[in-house]
Amino acid sequence: MKRTLFLFAALCAVCVGRSQTPVYLDLTAPVEERVEDALARLTLEEKVALCHAQSKFSIKGVPRLGIPELWMSDGPHGVRAEINWDDWGYAGWMNDSCTAFPALTCLAATWNPEMSAIYGKAVGEEARFRKKDVLLGPGVNICRTPMNGRNFEYMGEDPVLASKLVVPYVRQAQTNGIAVCVKHYALNNQETRRMNVDVEVSDRALREIYLPAFRAAMVDGGAWSIMGAYNKYRGQYCCHNKVLLQDILKGDWAFDGAVITDWSGCHSTDEAAANGLDIEMGTGSDGLTYSLTNAYENYYLAQPYLAALREGRAEMKELDDKARRVLRLIFRTVMSPDRPWGSFGTEEHAAVGRRVAQEGIVLLKNDGILPLRRESAGRILVVGDNATRSMCRGGGSSELKPWREVSPLQAVEEYYGKENVSYVLGYEAGAPHYGRVVEPGSDAEQLRREAVEAARNADVVLFFGGLNKNHRQDCEDGDRDTYSLPFGQEELLAALRKANPNIIVTLISGNAVQTDWDVDARAVVQGWYLGSEAGHALVDVLSGEVCPSGKLPVSFYARLDDCSAHAFGEVSYPGVDDRVEYKDDILVGYRWLAARKIRAKYPFGYGLSYTSFAFGKPAADAKVYSEDDTVRVGIEVTNTGAVEGKEVVQLYVGKPKSAVKRAPRELKAFVKESFAPGETRRVELSFPIADLAYWNEATGSWCIEKGTYTVYVGNSSEAAAAVKIEVK
Ligand code: BGC
After folding, report:
1. How many other C-beta atoms lie within 10 A of the C-beta of residue 601?
2. pLDDT by residue (tens digit) across 212-264?
3. Candidate from 264, 476, 477 with most ligand 1 atoms within 8 A of CB, to mutate
4. Ligand 1 atom showing the smallest separation from residue 80 Cα
5. How far is residue 98's CA from residue 509's CA, in Å, rounded to a whole number?
6. Gap between the Cα atoms of 414 and 603, Å rounded
7. From the CB of 397, is ligand 1 less than 6 Å away?
8. Are 471 and 437 in contact (CB under 8 A)?
9. 74 ligand 1 Cβ < 6 A
10. Which atom of ligand 1 lies closest to the CA of 181?
């Protein structure tokens, strides 16, 4: 009888959860209760199994308790095609063609948090539909040099811009019951030697430049996971870096989610155990096919960790902390009771991508040739490899398989009429390839001659050039070779110019390039990588259907040497002997240019419109502020042109007399608003005095300096109109 009762009780426990902790089956119980309940039921082995991969993109869950696998996917511009369980090959599914959204540099160039919100919501819906629980993105590493092959996956050179744009993406994506995984934490500012370069950076630069966007994503956005970077920081790998993970992320920022490695970013069981890594994912090991010695069970946080725990070399309370965080991630996502269903590859999502792209395209130069109206365009010659190349392919892990990708040529033909458009390649840029540089095979002279000949017979030349997603262009695992335009494009432009002066250049790139050749162009448009609707969005702007309103999220340096990262020689970029010292300190991007009085070719925050704007004098709501106050600055903006347009009003602050080193100006606030032709409106910008604080290295805390500050308001980082304020 006793035995029967016991069996009955055991059966009940399995079916309905332990009687003393019934919340386990109650999906509506608060996540923390569910976490504690589940944790109490896990064996040591089950806890450890939560801490490492079981395949390229999943962890195991706890099958015995019905806790499902957790599935991840790249990110960040769409949901990547399905990858094999055990290797990097694509699985060849027929139903995984996603919507490709514009690359994050373009999102940053919108300077519009609303764009970030619709982007995050849509990409989250795609991830949800594809049954992904963690979307690997967005990335917020600061663009320190335009040579970084991965800048296109990030949000520009300014911590405030990146912070304000990352938050809506994170919040909206996660409303789908999927977690974002913000990457790559931290200081992954170059791809050259990314796997082990050791970054030495001052505390101030770390806190003021490189971390704020991560902090915003975690603290204000509430991101549920974060990815450790490959590189080291002060001698320790970022994936198990005590300062970054324990002290700052989990300490200062009270992050309660999971830290996931970049793939194969873990190098030590002891450090991973003690320093706050929660999930180890990998690239090199092939778990089930040919190399059993390299299987997932041999990951640092798998059997070696189990052994360390059993032998008392690792602490159980650290393991519990990891398991708790992974369970929390699971309960917030795959075991969340109220997940929406998501949607995938829809026209609505394509439309979101198109809107973001339209707002992110930046007009750099225009002598009046743009907009190119349909009625007056005449015979159009399209030139360039980027007019037809898929920009969703390549680039590394952010590569996408879109259900549609409209090329510039397609869209030009569609809009202006096929009969009015002809196309020549003009130069060759090599087949899409990840992992090696592909040398063009054809005769450059011949291609150039053909293009020049065709240009003679055209009314206007639409040149689509720039970079591409091949290795050592805009691509993971390698930085660019040259700052100038590759593949002989400069020579081609000069030759075309002689045949036809009406040249409109659209640069497709995720990075700034040298633009001395712009004298050969009547207009220059910065087109980024725009995803599924690339061609449509570009033609929307070129044709004037949409008035351009994007602003540069990065400085276009006249010369590479003008960039702070390159001003101190090799030691400061790309480093010597696997060590890079950020000698530019807090003076990154336009901050450096302003400090050294170097003019950018096209400055941070700059972008033209088809209308024009006039600014009044800025006025602050007070003269003197105390530390807890918020400053409100008003300025009159007038649309002085003939068409409706959006303008980004930007506010920068400097402190001319300061006890510490300071950038002459730093972005503190911005708003993007639309103005009808002739309309004048007062625009208000605000920022808390707390945002003026610098990181005091001696005290290890934020410090607000008293005294006079200058507030600059205008439509680029070179804005001149100023008002003084006092902090007492
Ligand atoms: C990249 C990550 C990516 C991961 C998985 C790594 O090589 O650095 O950004 O999420 O691979 O594909």
Report:
1. 18
2. 999 999 999 999 999 999 999 999 999 999 999 999 999 999 999 999 999 99
3. 476
4. 12
5. 21
6. 34
7. yes
8. yes
9. yes
10. 10
